[in-house]
Design the sequence.
């Protein structure tokens, strides 16, 4: 269950980025192109493939991204809300952050606040292919959960693909929500 929650936490880490210097790298240019105006809301469908299971697990819900926190709300197959902030990751009704979640939460918030230095410090970027860029964690703590993360969609983020340890993977398809209708 902890790895399931941590995977859900890493996913939104690619949902925004910000300020760059005059000489952009491919990574900076790609992330800038996917930059979100905060707050942002998405619906998601996650297809999680686990080694040993005959069929992928499917979940869906919504993600709300703010400058200081992210709310990851799974609606199906069961309801669960996680709040990701500088202090760590907590279940919406819980008071204590999940053990070891502080580093992941701080990384996520740095990305959302446009701290490209933290992104460069924690990820190596592979060459962009079509409309995706693949990030490989430099940080051994992140590598405990994720082998690589592909961020796909230009000019807007549409899909995140995670390759996890033990040949597990997740594909998260995102659809922006609008303020008027709640969906795009």
Sequence:
């Amino acid at each position: 269950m902890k790895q399931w929650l941590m995977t859900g936490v890493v996913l939104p880490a690619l949902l925004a980025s910000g300020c760059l210097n005059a000489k952009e790298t491919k990574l900076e240019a790609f992330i800038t192109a996917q930059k979100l105006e905060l707050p942002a809301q998405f619906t998601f469908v996650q297809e999680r493939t686990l080694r040993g299971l005959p069929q992928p697990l499917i979940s869906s819900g919504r993600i709300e991204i703010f400058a200081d926190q992210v709310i990851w709300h799974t609606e199906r197959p069961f309801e669960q809300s996680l709040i990701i902030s500088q202090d760590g990751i907590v279940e919406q009704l819980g008071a204590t952050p999940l053990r070891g979640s502080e580093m992941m939460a701080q990384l996520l918030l740095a990305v959302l606040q446009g701290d490209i230095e933290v992104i460069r410090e924690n990820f190596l970027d592979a060459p962009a292919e079509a409309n995706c860029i693949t990030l490989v964690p430099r940080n051994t703590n992140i590598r405990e959960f994720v082998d690589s993360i592909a961020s796909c969609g230009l000019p807007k983020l549409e899909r995140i693909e995670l390759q996890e340890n033990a040949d597990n993977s997740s594909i998260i398809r995102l659809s922006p929500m609008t303020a008027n209708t709640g969906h795009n």
Q: What stands out?
A: The radius of gyration is 15 Å. The chain has five helices and ten strands. Residues 178 and 184 are 6 Å apart (CA to CA). The chain has a mean pLDDT of 75.
